[in-house]
Design a protein that fits this description.
With 72 residues, the protein is mainly alpha-helical. The longest helix has 27 residues.
Length: 72
Amino acid sequence: MNVKENIKNKVEQLDKSELRSLSQYIDQMLLMRGKEAVSTKKKEQPYKKVAKLLSKNPLTTHDILDERKERV
């Protein structure tokens, strides 16, 4: 018996008040999962921020190496 079937069998044994509680709990779990998905999607990866900043004033690897040589 897999997990879903096991849960279904247990749910069938619950009374109305227990079913309402379970329904609220499931709703909360789904809501939290949705918030986590949104928060991870909204976070912009650091390399994307750098690429966006550099797009205005593009630097090449050669430019960076030249600047390093000047400092050393």
